[in-house]
Amino acid sequence: MNFVDRVKIAWAAFRAVGGIELPDAGRSSDETLGGTMTAYAASFGSISPVIDFEMLKVLKCFWLYNPDFSQYIANIVNLGNPGHQLSVEAKSDATIEQAITRLNESSSRIYKHGVGVDGLLNQYLTSVAWSGAISSEDVVNFAARRVEKVVLVPVEQIRFRYNKDLDTYEPYQQTSTFIRRQDLRTSFGLIPLNQETYKYYALSTVENSPYAKPPGTAAVEPILEGQKPIMENIRFMAQKFGLLGLVTAAVTPPPRKPGEIEAEYQARATSYLKNVAKALEGEFNKGLLVTFKDQKLDHTNIAEGATGVYDVNRISEEQIFSGLATMPGFHGRTDATTETFADVVYYLLTAQTGNMQRIVKRRQEQTYRLDLRMGGIEVDSVSLAFDKAHSRNALGEAQTDEIKLRTVLEKVKSGLIDPDAGAQELGEESWHDVEMLFGVLNPVPAAKSQSMKKIVTLSFDKQSQRYKPQTRPIQIWSGETDTADNVVPILKKKAQRA
Hints:
Blueprint: H1 3-15, E1 16-17, E2 20-21, H2 39-42, H3 53-65, H4 67-80, E3 84-90, H5 93-109, H6 117-131, E4 133-141, E5 146-152, E6 158-163, E7 168-174, E8 190-192, E9 198-202, H7 220-239, E10 246-251, H8 262-284, E11 295-300, H9 307-323, H10 339-374, E12 381-386, H11 394-413, H12 419-425, H13 435-438, H14 446-449, E13 452-461, E14 466-469, E15 474-477, H15 490-497
Antiparallel strand pairs: 1-2, 3-12, 3-13, 4-5, 4-9, 6-7, 7-8, 10-11, 13-14, 13-15
Helix pairs in contact: 3-4, 4-6, 4-10, 6-10, 7-9, 11-12
């Protein structure tokens, strides 16, 4: 075996992991999106989205002006922000207190247009509902050592460039001017965005595209091709109703004057007809009409011929609701339905909203962590959790929660799961007071107490727009030191008592 063969064997062994040979470059597929660019986008070197930027402008317009689309967004926001809590984890009570003070300062400052963090969360949910993405940047104040505010960067202005060396997509903002600053990097109006302060989170994407897929794209065609023409016809009909119908007037033309040529007569007759129409229009809407004997009026009830418009418009709206993944009942349509079906529809909407809440949660956590870090407050974690959505059937849900609590308690007490796993099944971070389950625990040794972490839960009060501690700080052993002989794990201690 020569030297070259030995090198080949060594290289093959280096690439193999657990006997599996992996690609040399880390992947065998190609990032095809890097070459998928329209003529316009290619001139700037950015990736062309599957959902183009003009479509985003249309969707934003629908959010502002289309009744069904606007109500869909409002439903998401109202259901998605019932309130929230923060869990802060740190190594000492002093750090916890500093973090609480800092978070209360930040919550009212970071988004003054919307009265603080509560309004910012509403904006995030709105953005996700119409565009499918959150696009925002934390504006830092170095002198004050804090995040001064959060600004929303329009989603339709974001462009991504593919960095082949790093195998990642880098965000840029497309400005309206070609050169905004004295910086070559901003040529063609593309401004590179700092990936520590700027975040773009997508609810869903089309394959590997970095751009978000808006949830309501399937409703665009039903609105433009269906609802818009129908509403234009309805507006035309509304202008013709008069007193609950269409009025036609037969007018005797004026007599021809001696020596009057045809063109002059037609011009005078047309002017006479317009004057009569104007006079009738002004008097008829008042409910009183006086005419000459030579004028005959006929009334046609066009409401009878418009009975099918409601059905046609209803079909169009149902297509829009399907495109928005929502139901007519949530838009005030009084279709008869059963309680069971109403529950199913409500849970589908809450599940849809829950998906949007997750990226809103992650984005706000990023802002709080950066602000605490700039203030020199070293916490282990900051976790945001939205409160439970408003109940449609409070009694039924209370009974379900009671049964679930009894089931989890049985699992924990029987040793099937540990207390924290049981708490997470109930939607909590950890079990607050384990003593209530197993009695007083053995005291923690001094050597181990140094490895305890503090966790406090803060509830956001919408009235005062401040965070208030919901629980006293609890201690969680980090497991960083050796187990002392006099400390018995909870589940083992239960078994010893038996």
